[in-house]
Structures are given as structure tokens and as C-alpha cells.
Write a structure and sequence with these properties.
The complex is a heterodimer of chains A (380) and B (266).
Chain A: E1 23-32, E2 35-45, E3 50-54, H1 61-69, E4 76-81, E5 84-85, E6 96-99, H2 111-121, H3 126-139, H4 155-167, E7 173-177, H5 185-202, E8 205-210, H6 213-219, E9 222-227, E10 230-235, H7 237-242, H8 247-252, E11 257-266, E12 271-275, E13 280-284, E14 295-300, E15 305-308, E16 318-328, E17 332-339, E18 344-350, E19 365-370, E20 376-378
Parallel strand pairs in A: 3-8, 3-9, 6-7, 7-8
Antiparallel strand pairs in A: 1-2, 1-4, 4-5, 9-10, 11-12, 11-14, 12-13, 14-20, 15-19, 16-17, 16-19, 17-18
Helix pairs in contact in A: 2-3, 2-4, 3-4
Chain B: H1 6-29, H2 46-52, H3 55-88, H4 95-102, H5 104-107, H6 110-128, H7 136-161, H8 164-172, H9 177-206, H10 209-214, H11 222-231, H12 236-260
The chains are: A alpha+beta (380), B mainly alpha (266).
Amino acid sequence: MDTPQKIANGAKPWIEQAETPFIRISNLTKKFGEFTAVDNITLDIYREELFCLLGGSGCGKSTLLRMLAGFENPTSGRVEIDGQDMANVPAYARPTNMMFQSYALFPHMTVEKNVAYGLMRDGVSKSDAADQVADMLNLVQLSEFAKRKPEQLSGGQRQRVALARSLIKKPKLLLLDEPLGALDKKLREETQFELINIQESLGVTFIVVTHDQEEAMTLSTRIGVMDQGEIVQVGEPHEVYEFPQTRFVADFIGSVNIFEGRVSADATDYVRIHSQEGDCDIHVSHGVSCTENQKLWFAIRPEKLTISREKPRGKFNFVKGVIDEIAYQGNLSVYRIKLASGKIVRVTKSNRARHDGDAFSWDDNVYVSWDEAAGVVLAQ
Amino acid sequence: MKKNSWFVTIATTLGFAFLYIPIISLIIFSFNKSKLVTVWAGFSTKWYAKLLNDPQILGAAWISLKIAFLSASLALILGTLGALVLVRFRRFHGKSLLSGMITAPLVMPDVIIGLSLLLLFVGMEAMFGWPAGRGLTTIVIAHTTFCMAYVAVVVQSRLVDMDESLEEAALDLGAKPTRVFFDITLPVIAPALVSGWLLSFTLSLDDLVIASFVSGPGASTLPMVIFSKVRLGVSPDINALATIIIVVVAIGVVIASTQMKPKKVS
């Protein structure tokens, strides 16, 4: 068998048809009484991926993770890890380890003992275990805290102990439940990159559960967006952001303006949509499979919109409104523009100059325009 | 720091005086030379000497300690198991009824517990000849029954507070369920086990009513002996005995509180 190309080097096994998936989840369902937490999910994940399950609270992402770890038994369906069916494998015998949201550090053991726990259960000799623990603590930069108890550590240090403990057995698959959720924003950003470095240097497959879309975008090779127990879209971060398939995904990831409209012209290489609520005609420079007069949604990100005082040329792709609200955020400003129909359009503009003499102000009459390839047409 | 108001100072003083003046006077009178309990006639330790040569008191103290130790240990095991079932197992039919019933002995009058246990023991002896007669065994069983309820309540509250993902983490790292219990669950709930055991031990040492019901010849506990002596008039050697018990308990409390204090974060 030839060694597959490393994901860290830019390979994309999910595109190559020949690659065998490392984790195969097929028709997996979990019901708690009447409530369906995970609804018939089928998903393939490849070796050395850093896959993010992204969704709001109660969407079933944690339940899916717990089924992979073996803490919950599926109601139906199948989980396969590296070709092995996990149906009758108890949690303590699975080739997976988990990093818990609460970190779940054993309070009565030192950092060293916490990290060594998994090795001791495998019957690794004391001296071997001590060496491996020392290496691991070195990797997460905690060597000097080896003798401390968890209660004597800061949040960030505990997070790293939890990571070290879950990595020490070199699991085939590491499951991370909101790994950065308890850290403050600045620390979270630093830790994100540390996590990626560790993942790439060890070559372990990661599945991360998160509700934070920025975190998912930064960390992952691919994102699976979940809603009400189902996976609604799987894709690389830029695909999920730029080519959402549903209004839910477009709205959940980043912020977006959505215009409801009907198809007014449908050709092979373009489509035109008339939107009542935007009082505008939208021209999209690619074909869309639709029928005349069909109801559609046009989604466009705030940063792809341009504000101007002058009316743009042409008949398409602009709306007219009044600036209702301006939020200055330092690096960029967010404008909320009210259209005649009452609809609010969000536009972001990066503040490139330190002093903008021609800045827009409240109650200015403006036009908001966009490029014919800047938005996405959504059928649902 | 703000000065305490006169009201707080007076209330505290009065409260503690109310609690401790009887005990202090008891300790003082244990060193009284006179045979009369209420008349001070000079310092003496003769009542302590007399106590140490009194086989009845010493025997009763030994029996009480044995009973307290045995029933506290049995109650610890049974109460912990009960708490585990009530906290950790998935909802089952009658779970809330059971968890209510386990705390019932806490509010049940001692007289009722004692009487019902006596009837049970008599009935059991008539049916299968065990326990043969009443004595140490029946007192241990009786004390275990009501101490178990206290242990279950104490351990239950600790288990509810415990993060269940600790156990899952150990399981995930390759420990089998029994191993998880001894490596993780037990150490985490250890403080509750210690206080449950100590509580049971004191409750058993303290009990007069239930023991009186289920005791038999040759198995008089210390409270029973003290009570029967006092009925014939308070004698100063009881003061001496009480002083010894107070000192032992005080030492125990000090040790327990220094051991249980959570360690300071450095």
C-alpha cells in the first residue's frame, strides 16, 4: 500500500475517490425516548483530518461525539474506526481518547499522575511511562508543573494537561468537546494555533465539537454543520462560508444578508431574481437550476457589499436605503442600512485610513451595490 | 476592619455561654473531693481512679466502642451502595419512593425504630432461631439500620456534586468500571465517607433508646449504664467519665477538622 499524501502538506483525501475513509459513520441514530438527538447521520472522516462538528446547543454534536467515544450506544447505525466495527467495543477498549469540556482532571492526582493514568492502565512500565509523560509535558510546555495538583493550575494550564492526558496513549482518534470553550478570547486564539501544531506534529485524527464558528474555521480541515440532529453541510471552511447550501448554514456561519425573491429570467449562464423586499433586480452571473417565477433566496455577506452616495450604473445589483446605525469596531465599521421596505442590510467596511474625510453618517441616503458573482442563490 | 456591634458581641457571648457553661461545670465538678455533686470540697482526682477500677463502666465502654465501630463500618458500606444506586442508576420504577424511604429513619422517633426492631428480632428468633437472644449482635444490626440512612444522605450529596465526566475520562483512558470506582469515585467521595463513618460512630455511641429496646443481658452499652446509675442519684465518677469522653471527642474533632480542611492554593 502506498502511503497517502499528508493532509498537512495540502492533500485533500475527501476529494480523491480512491482514499478509504478512516472513520465511517453510517446511518447513525440516537434517540432518548421520543427525542431524536442524532438523526441518521452518514459521514466519512479521513486519517489526520481535523474535523469540526459545528452547531448550536442541542443540535446533537456532543451526542455524536459520545457515541464515537463509546459513552452512548447508538439506537441504530454503525461506527467504524480504521476498518473495525465499534458496535460491541466498550469505551475502555476503543482506540479513541477524549478531551472533555470540563477537562475532567482527576482532582486527587498530580499533573504527572493524571497524564500517566492511561499508560498505567495499559500496563506500561513505570520508567517507560515516566519518560513518555515527561516528553508529553514538554510538548504542552508544562514540565515545571508536573508535581502540582489540578486546583493549583490556571484555566489554560488545565486545558493543556487535559490535552496531554488524552494524547499520551497515541489514540487513533482524538475527540475534543469544546476544547477551548473555557478560555478567554486572547488565550483561545493562541491555543487554537498550538492545537493545530500539535495535531500536525503527531498526525492524530481530531474530531472537534464546537459552537464557535470562528474556532471551527481556524482549526479545521473540514467542517460538518449540524442542525437538529442532522448534518446539513460538510465542506472545507471556505466552502461552507462562501458556498452555503441552505439559509441555515449561511446564517449560522458568519453574518449574511438574505433577500427573498422570485426568478424573473432563467438562462444557461445567468439568472435574474426580482426581490420585493429589496425593491431590486438581482443579476447572478452563473446558471442556477430553477424555474421561472420560483421562490429563491439570494444571500450575500456584509463585506462583499459597497456603499456609495452616487447611484451605481446599470439596472441590477443595488438597493437604496438610509443609514440607520453605525458600529465602529476599530478594524472595521458595520453599517446597518434601512431599505424602504423596512428591511435592514448589514454592510462592513474596513477602516483602511486612519482618518476618513468622506465618512458616511447617520441618516445619509446611500446605495448599496455588489458584484454579480459575490452572492449565492439558495433554493432552501 | 469594622468593629462588631455590641449586639453581635453580646449575642455570641450568651450563645456560647449557654452551650458551654454546663459542660465546664461538669468538668470542674469531676475534680471535686466531696461525694456530693453540688458541693465543692477541694481538688481531687479520686473519681478518675475509682472509674478506672470500675469493671462495669469499663466493660460497658468497651462494648459501646465495639458496637459503634462495627455498626459505623457496616452502615458505611450499605449506605454508600444505597447512595450509588440512587444517584448513578438510570431512572427506574420507584426510584423517588426509594430515595424518600432511605431518609425516613432520620425523622422516625427512636422509640418506634427500637420497638419495631425488637418485634422483628423476636419474630426472627421464633421463625429461624437467629439472632439467638438479644445482645451485641442485635444492637449492631439496629444501629447499622439507622446509621445507614445518615451515610446514604451524606454520600448522596457528594456524589451529586461529583463531575460524572471524571469517571468517563478514566473509562476512556482504559480503566474498566470496577477500576474506575476504586481509582476515581472512591477517592473523590472519600471526605463524605469519612464524615459518614464518624457521624455513624457518634450516633451509635450516643444512642440510648434503641439500644435499650434491642439489648439483652450482658450487653449494656455505656449510655445504658450511665442512665441506670444516674437514676440512683448522680455520682461524681460519672462526671469523670463524661469529662474523659468530652476530651476524646474534642481531640477527634480537632484532628478531623485539620485533616479535612482543603489545602491552600500556593
